[in-house]
Amino acid sequence: MAQFQLLGCLKQARESTVPHTTAKLSPDGQHVALCEETDIEIYNVKGQTEVSLSTLHSRPLSDLCWSPDSQCIATASDDFTVIITHVKYGELHRLVGHTAPVTALKYTSKGNLLCSCSMDESIKIWDTLTGTLLRTLSAHSEPVVSIDIPLFDSSILSSGSYDGLIRIFDTATGHCLKTLTYDKDWQSENGVVPISQVKFSQNGKFLLVKSLDGILKIWDFVRGKVVRTFVSEQSKSLRYSCGMDFLYSADETLDPIVVSGTENGEIVCWDSQTKRTVQRIQGKHADSPVMDISCNGSLMCSISLNGECNLWKWSAN
Amino acid sequence: MANLLLQDPFSVLKEYPERLTQTFDTPLHTCCVQFSPGGDYLAMGCSNGAVIIYDMDTGKPITMLGNKGGGHVRSIQSIQWSQNGRYILTGARDWFVKMWDLQKAWEPAKEFKFHSPIWTCNWSPGKELGCVVTVYEEDHAFAVDFSLENPTATKICGSTERMNKSEAESEENVKTLDYGYTLVACVHPKRPDILITGTSKGWIKLYRLSDDLVELVHTYRFAHSNAKHMIISQSGDRLAINSADRTIRQYLLTMNDDLTEISFILEYRYQDVINRLQWNCIHFSNNSAEYLVASTHGSSAHDLYLWETSTGTLVRVLEGTDEELLDIDWDFHSMCIASNGLETGNVYIWSITIPPKWSALAPDFEEVEENIEYREKEDEFDQIGQLAHQQELDQAEEVKIDLRSMEKFDVRGNEIDVNRFIIPIEFESILMLKSWHNENE
């Protein structure tokens, strides 16, 4: 049975720095980018530092997103702006329009559109060639914290918000096409459970959703049904939006793995079909919440709030 | 595409666009338009020889072919995208046929010069980077092979064609042996070895092409005037010819595998009986060509006409423009039709407009057409046991899910190709524009 093997530690935890919330593998699988205050640090997957790009953001960064050609990085900042930086040429565009910190970013598979969501409760779609705003989707009543677009289908956009709703939008028109709520969560006694992460399956037919209480669900979003639920141990604090991702191993016959970070520094892996826990990584990330998980091929990159960033490989023992 | 699954199925499955939704106010005068195979981009050929690619997502131009030199210098006559969307073939009145690789769109990848202006150019699907070109005042079409270092053109002339001529001489009407100039050509979509051409004297010629042999297997006279356009349906069984006698003829094309029996059965003729207008351009809808759309010639007509091919009746007039329309292209993925205006050179897009579904915003609500009287349903307030409900949810989690395999066709029946070519972004031009802006501020 395959498991995650630690390839190396890209970055050690440091004390008293700003929180680290994002580290992403590039679409070509060659690099990892992470944010250090207002700078972007790029490592290659062998573990060496390649380049450090400074941005003109005035506040720390909360999310970054590689363009599909792995040439540009878009960064979302607490200064309400998004900056697209080319790895070689530097800053291309500064996208101004949000009226609150920007929380998450996602490129479409063609790289011509960039979507951003913000604490101002809106989602904005930008033209990456000209840096202009194309449309604004306002349909949430609390901060929108996560968005995703299927890898091969830019026609839909999913969003997760602290108002407990998961919405699916049409990217071309901005119309809301579907709202997913699990009635029990939505109207439980202690109020709504905020959504913290959304992620489409590679074929764009299912949506993996994590709520702030640490429970993951796979939705069949067309039918509006939950088809899988994964629970590690319930988080009580509802504080950290911990990362998660699908891992698609090279063997086409195997079902993808659901990888999820927890508030106490663990990484839990489930078989998406059987819901069996296949691995639980403990002892890394020093009890700090694992804020981002990014998978590409057999590689997985994890980063915790304290800045420790590890690179893992899914391989047989 | 998944957005179609979540929208009103009656709107999504409309078979033709209905409303003018977008106008591209192009700086240059457009003479022909074509969508990329997946409908991501629209290529516009202009009267000064420029070819501009628009991104349909943003509605903005993203690149111009040959912006570092090597472009056409006269009006573009024909544009064709390759099947994978990476290459573009252009033919122009400057006698050149050029092939462009969109990976490096700033200069032509290959070109070939004829001795007269180009009418049409088409990719030949059987051959990698091969194409079929029809040229002004030439009896035959040409095959150009762009896979060679120095492209060559060979005349597509049947080995039996001369014999046919001598046979025909014995017949009464001596004029029939002269087929006239070959003006249009199209390749059979299901049989890449079959080329169909139309001539200036109203003949359809059907060739079989193999590696070393070209055979003229069938000829058919449809009229006594020249062929302006010839189109063939995706399934290859319907053919339509727009000819200079103001008529569009729609044929059912049947053939057996070894091409010994070929027949053209005239299904319908489309004519404007009142104004006797000519038709500029024609286009079929997808699959088995349920619909035929045409643009009209003449300053008084500003519309596109759409007929149902099975009955020959006019089903829709696409309105909204103030000028005569020329070229037409139909994108079946997003169901939109593009056409360019004669006077302004703008490009108009008709599409399906799907109304927003407000009930999608609140999952507990349902949109109803009209007021309905509330009647309590039998089980509406039944107390379902907590346990039974939980069991139901648990059962849903037992069903096998497939997170890997992709959908092969969208709901409209178009093939979804995930390996469609994406035109790389020209970062240099972004930087150039940026520095230009900075200087002007």
UniProtKB/TrEMBL annotation, chain A:
Q: Which Pfam families does this chain map to?
A: Beta-prop_WDR5 (PF25175)
Domain WDR5-like beta-propeller, residue spans: 19-313
What Gene Ontology terms describe where this protein resides (cellular component)? Answer: Set1C/COMPASS complex
Q: Which GO molecular function annotations are given, in alphabetical order? A: histone binding
Please provide the record's keywords in A-Z order: Repeat, WD repeat
Q: Which Gene3D superfamilies does the UniProt entry name for this protein?
A: YVTN repeat-like/Quinoprotein amine dehydrogenase (2.130.10.10)
By its UniProt entry, which PROSITE patterns does this protein fall under? Answer: WD_REPEATS_2, WD_REPEATS_REGION
Keyword Repeat present in the record's keywords: the answer is yes
Give the superkingdom in one word. Answer: Eukaryota
Q: Where are the WD repeats?
A: 95-136, 137-179, 195-229
Please report the name of this protein according to its UniProt entry: LADA_0D03620g1_1
Q: Which organism is it from?
A: Lachancea dasiensis
Q: What is the lineage of its organism?
A: Eukaryota, Fungi, Dikarya, Ascomycota, Saccharomycotina
TrEMBL record, chain B:
Give UniProt keywords alphabetically: Nucleus, Repeat, WD repeat
Which subcellular locations apply to this protein? Nucleus
Outline the WD repeats, range by range.
69-103
InterPro entries per the UniProt record, alphabetical: RBBP5/Swd1, WD40/YVTN_repeat-like_dom_sf, WD40_repeat_CS, WD40_repeat_dom_sf, WD40_rpt
In its keyword annotation, does this UniProt entry include Repeat?
yes
Name the GO cellular-component terms: Set1C/COMPASS complex
Q: What PANTHER family has UniProt attached to this entry?
A: RETINOBLASTOMA-BINDING PROTEIN 5
Report what the protein is called: LADA_0C05028g1_1
Organism name: Lachancea dasiensis
